[in-house]
Amino acid sequence: MLLCCAALTACAGAPVQEMSDARQAVHAAQKAGAAEYAPDLFAEAQAHLKSATTNLHRQEYRVARDEAGLAREKAMEARRQAEAAAGPRKP
To answer: Are 72 and 59 contacting, i.e. CB atoms less than 8 angstroms apart?
Structure first.
């Protein structure tokens, strides 16, 4: 019983939503052309996401959460820059 409770407590701390948000933001930045129009920011977002994933697997949830947040922020900024550089899209 004690082992089961410990396992549940460990899972509860995993930054599931933060990881999902970061992945979605990086994907959206990629679709917006961030690799072309904001390559440095996009690379930073990818690096933070990779670090978040690594730390998640190590069960370093606080670090994973922080890295996921940074990945999301960098990806959102890269997307904004890419959209501004690419100009208005045609319908």
So the answer is: no
